[in-house]
């Protein structure tokens, strides 16, 4: 496959090595794929390479021998864990995060982020560092708590609500902790950059709910949030509704995972993107809207009935226009339409 040409002079030329952490994940695998399409070489970290061989097979078949390699990083929270992985790379995109419900989740995320930044600062070849944050670092998906309100989200907006909630005696388990880990994790990245003033540019990407195709549905399955539309088409949405009705009860903003990956590429190589938070919010969706679309597309399928829930608040995403402009500059066409994204999400099932 011939690499795609770029409409600008990239910070790092094609052929440079880029590190992608957690490369077997839903978003990270797409980041790797978009970089490889543009002629970059990708080194991907995983905890256990033996369980991620499908990435080597897939990318070797698509881009040839020597364009992609796996490296082991078993514990991101250990100081120096990334020292070997960053050797000779021009850019780093830190997609991997620590998951769980333990009391030390937030400190583990912050430690992992600072560990990778410290390793990057010791490698003179590094020119860009992109951190995968989350829409939850700026605002709650739980829009039912802000019914009929219009909330402005700007480049300086943080999820202050979740930081307040985790300080309460009994914060909501699970999702509040996750949202707080992404909020404080991203803040720790910016604080480190301000304190250390490294020789590379730091950018962050804040994805909203990601839908779209898996790169390898057989090996990867419907990973992360792509499982939710797939479960609707399979009429198995009740597996997730118990969780989602407390987190995303009516709808939120959704984005194609490939668009998210392209924004990571922009943060890595676009000379005009410096010290920016890139908001990958795409457009609004509702669960009932997704169900209705699948009813139209697949009229003979047995699908869930309409879910409870009324109106939800409106988010005004001021930085979305900037992000959409970058998608066009990097070779995309702006935000992918929701219906197009949903078709890609379930194409292996139909």
Automatic annotation (TrEMBL):
What are the alphabetically sorted keywords of the record? Oxidoreductase
Listed GO MF terms: oxidoreductase activity, acting on the CH-OH group of donors, NAD or NADP as acceptor
Q: Which first-to-last residue range defines the signal peptide?
A: none
Please report the stretch or stretches of sequence annotated as the NAD-dependent epimerase/dehydratase domain.
18-232
Q: Which InterPro entries does this UniProt record tie to the protein?
A: Epimerase_deHydtase (IPR001509), NAD(P)-bd_dom_sf (IPR036291), NAD(P)_dehydrat-like (IPR050425)
Entry's Pfam families? Epimerase
UniProt family annotation: Belongs to the NAD(P)-dependent epimerase/dehydratase family. Dihydroflavonol-4-reductase subfamily.
What is the protein's given name?
NAD-dependent epimerase/dehydratase domain-containing protein
Q: Which organism is it from?
A: Aspergillus mulundensis
């Amino acid at each position: 496959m011939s690499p795609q040409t770029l409409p600008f002079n990239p910070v790092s030329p094609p052929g440079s090595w880029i590190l992608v952490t957690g490369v077997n994940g839903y978003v990270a695998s797409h980041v790797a794929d978009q970089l490889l399409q543009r002629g970059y070489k990708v080194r991907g970290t995983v905890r256990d390479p033996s369980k991620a061989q499908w990435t080597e097979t897939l990318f070797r078949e698509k881009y040839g021998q020597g364009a992609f390699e796996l490296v082991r990083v078993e514990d991101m929270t250990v100081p120096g864990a990334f020292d070997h992985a960053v050797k000779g790379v021009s850019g780093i995109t830190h997609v991997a995060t620590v998951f769980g419900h333990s009391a030390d989740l937030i400190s583990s995320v912050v430690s992992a982020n600072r560990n990778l930044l410290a390793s990057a600062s010791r490698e003179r070849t590094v020119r860009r560092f992109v951190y995968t944050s989350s829409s939850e670092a700026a605002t709650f998906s739980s829009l039912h708590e802000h019914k009929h309100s219009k909330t402005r989200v700007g480049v300086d907006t943080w999820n202050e609500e979740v930081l307040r909630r985790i300080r309460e005696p009994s914060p909501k388990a699970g999702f509040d902790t996750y949202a707080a880990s992404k909020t404080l994790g991203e803040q720790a990245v910016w604080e480190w950059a301000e304190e250390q003033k490294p020789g590379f540019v730091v950018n962050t990407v804040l994805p909203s709910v990601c839908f779209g195709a898996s790169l390898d549905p057989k090996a990867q399955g419907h990973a992360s949030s792509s499982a939710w539309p797939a479960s609707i088409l399979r009429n198995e949405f009740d597996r997730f509704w118990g969780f989602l009705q407390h987190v995303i009860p009516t709808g939120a903003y959704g984005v194609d995972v490939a668009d998210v990956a392209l924004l990571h590429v922009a943060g890595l190589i676009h000379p005009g993107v410096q010290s920016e938070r890139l908001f990958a919010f795409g457009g609004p969706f509702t669960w009932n809207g997704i169900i209705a679309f699948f009813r139209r597309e697949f009229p003979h399928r047995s699908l869930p009935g309409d879910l409870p829930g009324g109106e939800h608040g409106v988010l005004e995403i001021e930085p979305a226009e900037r992000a959409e402009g970058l998608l066009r500059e990097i070779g995309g066409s702006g935000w992918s339409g929701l219906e197009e994204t949903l078709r890609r999400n379930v194409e292996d099932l139909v």
